[in-house]
Amino acid sequence: MTDQKKIGEGKSAFVTGGSKGIGYAVAQALAGAGYNVTITSRNEDEVTGAAAQIGHGIRGVMCDVRDAKALQEEIDVHTGIFGGLDVLFVNAGVGRFSNVKDMSIEDWDTVLETNLSGAFYTVKAALPALTESAKNGGGYIFLLSSLAGKNPFAGGAAYNASKFGMNGLSEVLMLDLRGDDIKVTQFMPGSVATYFNGHTPSDADAWKIQPEDIAQLTIDLLEMPRRTLPSRVEVRPSRPDKK
């Protein structure tokens, strides 16, 4: 196995929604592998605190992925500081859950604009830098979808729609970009022990996928030969909780 301390030497990564949960774990793993990393969040205190906790090589910036202009500005700053962009991890997401008849237009818009439009804006802003990186053997996009992107559930209209859309976007990106030597992988995890939707992880979540598991998958795929592309990775708990 390649030495993780060397695979990111001289390279950089941009992670949205990186202040906690999966984004934080991925950023921490990338930093440990030698990457210079920018993480974003809508909460300035949380993202600067997370960056400080991870330590050297991490920038924490406040940025709402629904704001395409702000995203472009932050990615341009990142490439200016680090000389390019090699890895993009699209992770920012929200959930609003209710029966369709009770769901507000505001909640619907928030979920779709964050989870789907925000993903498109992020990739669009990063593509020029990733294209340059691909010329030198880099250029990798990871998008965090969900098993909810193929398994609808009651009360999940907005979230399911956003993740079904994310799956479609991810697959089209893979087809559009592989000719430019940019790799695209979508992760579709099941239950993960994160802070999503106001949840606080505890010992009761030990059966779930841990954020560090997704981070390990990310590093493993970055180590994979360029000739091979796992374009969709479904991830489930090995032993689901028995209710």
UniProtKB/TrEMBL annotation:
Its recorded name reads: SDR family oxidoreductase
Q: What family is this?
A: Belongs to the short-chain dehydrogenases/reductases (SDR) family.
Q: What InterPro entries does the annotation carry?
A: KR_dom, NAD(P)-bd_dom_sf, Sc_DH/Rdtase_CS, SDR_fam
Question: Which UniProt keyword terms apply here?
Answer: Aromatic hydrocarbons catabolism, NAD, Oxidoreductase
Signal peptide location: none
Please name the SUPFAM superfamilies in this protein's record: NAD(P)-binding Rossmann-fold domains (SSF51735)
Which Gene3D superfamilies does the record match to this protein? Answer: NAD(P)-binding Rossmann-like Domain
Report the residue ranges that make up the Ketoreductase domain in this protein: 11-195
